[in-house]
Amino acid sequence: MTIHDISKLANVSVATVSRVLNGNANVTESTREKVMAVIRENNFTPNAFARGLGLDTMRTVGILCVDPADPDACPSLQFAIGYLQRELRRQDFDSLLYCVGYDMQEKERSIQAMLNRRVDAIVIIGSFFIENNATNNLCILNAAQTTPVWLVNGNLENIPNIFCTRCDDRDGAYRATKALLESGSRDIMMLHYASTYSEQQKILGYQQALQAFGLPVRDEYIYETTPDVQEVEAKINSHLAKGLALDGLFATEDELAICALKSATARGISIPEQLRVVGYSNSKLSLFSTPELTSVDHNIEPLCVTTVALLVNQLRGMKTPTVTTVMADIVYRKTLPAPHRN
Predict the structure, then answer these.
(1) Which residue of 108, 116, 141, 154 sits 20 to 30 Å from the alpha carbon of 128, by its own alpha carbon?
(2) Measured distance CA(30)–CA(203) in Å, rounded
(3) CA distances, 131 to each of 36, 163, 191 (Å)
């Protein structure tokens, strides 16, 4: 049954049915009761689009992210999706999820599809969709002219109607590297993914920690890689073959750190006596590795909870900060034991 059927049975216009469904005051009480009687008799439940016909809100938020099944996708992406959808449901919002590849046209098509469906806001997870080339961000900028856009761990600042909620990845990486340095490591390798905004912040944090200890930043110690054991092993082998020392390793994702652990132990390197390792994201993998992995917790659940709370407040007309930052924490395990404090 549709609102057209309701209008025929109640002998009123479709516009009147819509006004009743939307709580419009410009309907007489007798007409409202006549329409509601038909609705009750037929167990009619209006869908989100029908509810939004006469309102300024569809109570629907579009979510854009890369495909969680993609091998290059951040392992915590699936958790971010789940947390966001859970919090939206708690606020009585539906969500439309678009999982796409890295192609620019796919991003543009997905954003346009959300706008066509009249979503109340768009949430973009991760920084893969934020381009260094401003032209490639036009579809986001154009969307923000009519719909609020929220970037979770992305960065487009000082643009009207674009809001950023992110973990302070620079500080998280700084503290991870600092912890390695305080444990005695001086020759610290860094493994990272592709050069997204988040990864660049982690690289800066790693570099700043070295500089704070009066140590040089050596490009030959920074490696871009993927979570492939053979690829990581090849980089470690190449590093050592050059005669470069190695007593510490910081990886921007737990998967990379675990690949490094597997490669190091295969070479007979003792963990943490000879090599201390810190990962990033505090995923369940950190508990399954041998030994258990010390990791930076980027607090993805609080980040997503904060995102939805601020988004809903913004839609209600409340003043909302354009940038909100959540701090990271180090969870110490076996690959870098917690320091003893006097």
Answers:
(1) 116
(2) 67
(3) 50, 16, 22
Cα–Cα distance, 274 to 276 (Å, whole number)? 7
- Say which CATH class 169-298 falls into: alpha beta
Q: Which residue has the tokens 């969680």?
A: 68
What's the mean pLDDT in 298-311?
Answer: 95
In angstroms, the CA 291 to CA 334 distance is 6
How far apart, in whole angstroms, are the C-alpha atoms of residue 130 and residue 196? Answer: 8
* Strand 188-192 relative to strand 222-224, pairing: parallel
- The answer to whether 197 and 127 have CB atoms below 8 angstroms apart is yes
- CA dist 233 → 186, 230, 259, 283 (Å): 21, 5, 7, 22
Encode pLDDT of 67-103 as tens digits.
Answer: 877 766 666 788 899 999 999 999 889 999 999 877 7
Distance (Å, rounded) from C-alpha 18 to C-alpha 127? 40
Instruction: Please count the other Cβ atoms lying within 10 Å of the Cβ belonging to residue 281.
Output: 26
> What are the structure tokens assigned to 70, written together?
């993609």
Q: Cα separations (Å) of 199 from 9, 251, 254, 272?
A: 60, 10, 13, 25
Domain 60-167+300-326 CATH (choose: 3.40.50.300, 3.30.565.10, 3.75.10.10, 3.40.50.2300): 3.40.50.2300
Question: What letter would DSSP give residue 95?
Answer: E
Phi, psi for 128 (deg, rounded to 5): -65, -30
21, 88, 114, 230 from 85: Cα distances, Å: 25, 5, 16, 36
For residues 31 and 278, give the distance between their C-alpha atoms in angstroms, rounded to a whole number: 67
The correct answer on CATH 1.10.10.10 for the domain covering 3-52 is no
- How many other CB atoms are found less than 10 A from the CB of residue 184? 9
Listing DSSP states for 19-45 in one string gives: HHHTT-SSS-HHHHHHHHHHHHHTT--
Pairing status of strand 329-331 against strand 294-297: antiparallel
| Segment 226-248, tens digit of pLDDT | 889 999 999 999 999 999 999 99
